[in-house]
Amino acid sequence: MLRGLSWRNFDFLLLGAVVLASAFGVTMIRSAIAGNEELLLLPTRQMYFAIVGVVVIFVLASIDYRYWLSIHWPIYFVTMAFLVALSSLGLAAFGAQRWFQVGILNLQPTEFAKITIILMLARYFEKTQNDERSWRWIFRGFLWAFGLMFWILIQPNLSNVVVIMVIFGFMLWINGLKIQHLVTVALVGALAVGTLVAFSILGLKIPGIQPYQQQRITNFLIPDPQDTYGDRYNVQQALVAIGSGGLTGLGYGHGTQTQLRFLKVRQTDFIFSVTSEEFGMMGGVIIILILAFVIWRCIRAAQKARDVSGSMIAYGIGVMLFFQGAANIAMNLNLIPVSGLPLPFISYGGSGLMALMVGIGLVESVAMRHKQLEF
Amino acid sequence: MSSSSLPRTSQFEPWRLFIVYGIVFVVMAMLLYRLVVLQVLTGGEYKAQAVENYTKSISIPSQRGIVYDRNGYVLARNIAAYNLVITPANLPDDDADIQRIYREVSKITGVAAGGPVTEDTLNFAKQFSACIDGPTIADMVALGDSIAPYSPVKIKCNVSEETARLVRERAADLPGVSIEIEPIRDYPTGSLTANLVGFLGPIPAADEEALKARRFVPNRDKIGYAGVEASLQEILAGQNGERVIQVDVAGKELRNLEAPIPALPGNNVTLTIDTRLQAAAEASLMQEISFWNTYFNTVRISSGVVIAMNPKTGEILAMVTYPTYENNRMARIIPSYYYQQLSEDPRRPLLNNAISAEFPPGSVFKLSTATGAYNEGVVNDKSIIFAPGQIELCDKFTANETCGANNTRPFVDWIYDTRPEGFGQIDFFHCIAYSSNVCFYKLGGGYQDEIPEGLGIFRLGEYARALGYDRRSGIELLGEATGLIPSPDWKRITTTEVWSTGDTYIASVGQGYVLATPLQVIMSGATVANGGKLMQPTIVRQVTDAEGNVQEVWFNPADFTVWFAKTVIDSKGDQTKQYVNPADPNKPLVKPPQGSYQISPFVPNVKWDITKTPLIQEYNCDAGYCQAVEGQKKVVNPATMTAVRTGTRMTVTDPSGTLHKVFTVDYPLPIAVAGKTGTAEYCDDVARKANRCQFGSWPTHSWTLAYAPFEDPEIIVMAFAYNGGEGASVAAPIVARVLQAYFELKAIDIAQGGAAAP
Question: CA-CA distance, A300 to A285, in Å (whole number)?
Fold first, then answer.
């Protein structure tokens, strides 16, 4: 596997951006715990995860990604086993079952399931690269993903289902999805979203979607002006935090919204608000630029990949980073409803960070084995 | 792999990739745009919200001033009430520990510890305000925890001092449990001085905004509702301090954001009241009321008033009203059942009847008629007036009306029942001493050829007002009534009827439309006693700040504002005096406002001296019809005052004088006393309801005023008994006992080497 391997092609810029983002994340988590003794260990823990993550990147880069593709079915079923176990054993936290407690760590299989699904879809699009772009092609691909997605849906974890669907959609598109199919899917999708919104606002229950999720949609679209301490509280405080940051911020460790804990779930969902409060617009712009840079390096690796599967892996990881990052920031900026998607590399979360590092490792693996056109 | 066979350099079709980059670019641009909008364009608003989030201002309560009587005896003070509180944030983490604490607190206070907190129990607990028994400890703490975990939750209010000490001792065992000290008002003399001292109540909603601006805290601070607590609110209240602090989301205090403003304690007030004399006056009044009520075996005398005053200074030494209320019952909260009971009582115990109630003064009003008649020359020292038991008087509505059987009716003297022949030929002094109605009918309204021109209603009004009737006195108590001296204009406007000569006759003896407050009656007596000098009645002797420095304070009775004199040093170093109203401190005056008088340090304020101040409007009178002479006002001749004084002295010295028996036989005093009695017929709603307004035998109020020593009066006492009957037999003994008490107390004070108190 290591034959002909050249570290010359290892994307050090991508690694550098990821390390920079993770270090920045640890820094912000340190500020975000705001003296809460229960959270005191989080920055150190996140740092360990980042260090281990960098090692993982090197290890995975050194292994040909096709090895993983060759065992995609075992990976698929192991992942599924974890998700099924989670459904039956997992903790019910915040209305959804999302992690296993392993010692002091909370293991979130869903984060890794997204990587698995990217692998599966990469394999699928490689297999079908010469097939006709028919409804059958679309539907079969969906079924490959659905095997894992189903278990995520019943957790229920709608946001990650949306992440997976977006990855699938972007993959379909880049692999030559026909315009008439796109229009049809878009119409059906718009209808579904429209129904969801209408039902939520009217207060009608939709099977398979939790009431709190519908409530979030309603709160987002029709905020209750009287509701100062209810569901809208977090978002409102995030806006206050971001807005009061101004151009240059209140200074590290001096954001009043953060340090006096008016801002909730600071170290995860609203870490962007913490950054924007303490470092102002500069902080927010830096995060967006790093994220854009990482996405660009992923898509660039995808472009240069030697085969469709490698290309799809890098592209899928790039799309995942783009969508999760954009969704998290947009939620902080109150552009979309509260979703619980973390900000890649920055938000606290061992599983999330590790899964992303695995993803980057795979991208590096693809990048190192790109088409040797220049020779 | 198969892809290598494809003729393209990239894995992707360029236009599809272009669209993907386009989407990424557009989304990132939208996020950046939103960031600019939030942070740069509208950042200020959010910044303000962030500041509002963490800024909290805390009021530092000020101490209300103490009220003393003239001898330094405390009438109103602040005492500590202990509330047992739990601060949710300070409770231990462990649920079992919390439950143990709840059980212990429950044992100490008797409040139920409470089971599991559910939505239902919380909703139940939400219905109660603090200090009201009902919800369990667990529910109250859970409620407080959800709102402000660092704010103490009142579990049991007003626990005993022993409980408070117990909780403090066990502080280590009971984390989160503490004792909160709440200052409440205490009135050591209670109902004895309730009508003067008053009570406190919550800030009414209507005043909330204005008082908040002056750093008052609604629902915590109280303001005066009655007595000097209300009228001297601005002196007593002081000003709360304020701290602006930074808090975190849980309400935990972090630091001062601004320099703290310290609280300004209220000023202390010393009243002119002598609590010992007040107690003696109350006892004297109650003794008389109980005696007569027992004697008649019914509630005959339902209310009464006693006032004692120094006529030379205007200081009120005692002011007792019955019935009254217990102001200590209003100290923490005003119990609604008690308040309702008081406000529905027809005897109006919540009002200070000494100043707020108007009664027909009856014969005590004859002092006005006597002063006027003598000063206008209607009568002189040598005049002899024929006073039979009853006379026929002509009730004329116009000057030209002829007197005949149709408009003539008998006017009866009070002596008629026992001595139908009346007093016979008497002089002016005996008219007063015997309180002869017939004599005063003649003096007031004229009688045939004997007194061709009586005083008349216009001139009577002038003299009555000169003695203090028909106007508010300007005493430092709220709710004063004006009383009423009728005039033909008043009658036409109010009753649409024309003034008749009969109206003048009965007004001359203080009946008919004439109404007066007990304070006005004692003022008229004080003016006579003082030889024409009317002193401003006052109940305030001194105002001191918290350190005991006497303050110069002026009081404006027109709007009840108080003005503190402050010495200001201007830029040139010159000292100027300014007068500052604490309610509006930004508008100081160079001079105290017109009509105000100094209440501290005490100076006797002359309201007017009728022998020096021209108060009496001149009238040209012809056959009872008088015309005011524009711009002509005159003074009262000092000889007039001497004559009237002599009459009041003869009331006691003449064996047939109305006050002779009480001051020589019943309550002999070695000091020369003078006075005047009054038996005022009345027919009010209460009497009408009881069907007692029978012609010729209306129920009567009992009045008496007396002053001593006659040569140089230093005390004047007035007593009033509602439905008391004859003045000499009911009100006079009350006055006599108070006078005795006064001179006994004076002797004690002198014996103890203290300053002769009053």
Answer: 22
Give the percent of chain B with pLDDT over 90: 63
B-proximal residues of A, 23-52, CB under 8 Å: none
In a domain, A373, yes or no: no
Is the Cβ pair A243, B49 closer than 8 Å? yes
What is the average pLDDT across B452-471? Answer: 92
Inter-residue contact A325 to A343 (CB < 8 Å): yes
Residue B8 pLDDT exceeds 50: no
Query: Using one digit for the tens of pLDDT, what is the confidence trace for B554-598?
Result: 999 999 999 999 988 888 888 888 999 998 888 999 999 999 999
Q: Are A306 and B17 a contacting pair at CB < 8 A?
A: no
pLDDT for residue B330 is more than 80: yes
Question: How many domains does chain A fold into?
Answer: 1
For residue A351, what are the β-bridge partners?
Answer: none
- B290, two tokens: 């109980």
Closest CA–CA distance from residue A82 to any residue of chain B (Å): 33
CA B58 to chain A, closest CA, distance in angstroms equals 18
Q: Which residues of chain A lie closer than 8 angstroms to B40, CB-CB?
A: 246-247, 281
Asked whether A171 and A124 are in contact (CB, 8 A), the reply is no
Three-state secondary structure call for residue A68: helix
Chain segment B78-100, per-residue pLDDT in tens:
998 899 999 888 888 888 888 99
Query: Which residues does chain A have within 8 Å of residue B249's beta carbon, measured at their own beta carbons?
Result: 260-262
Q: What is the mean pLDDT of residues B671-675?
A: 95
B559's CB contacts (< 8 A; 6+ apart) are none
Regarding the domain with residue range B362-532+611-751, which homologous superfamily does it belong to in the CATH classification?
Answer: DD-peptidase/beta-lactamase superfamily (3.40.710.10)
Beta carbon pairs, A and B, within 8 Å: 138
Q: How far apart are CA A82 and CA B251, in angstroms?
A: 43
To the nearest whole Å, the CA of B89 is away from the closest chain A CA by: 14
Q: Which two tokens stand for residue B578?
A: 């300014």
User: Tokens standing for B669?
Assistant: 């005093």
Task: Give the whole-angstrom CA distance, residue A176 versus residue A172.
Answer: 6
Residues of chain A with pLDDT under 50: 1, 93-95, 374-375
Domain chopping of chain B, boundaries: 2-41, 53-73+188-271, 77-187, 362-532+611-751, 540-608
B53-73+188-271 is classed CATH 3.90.1310.10: yes
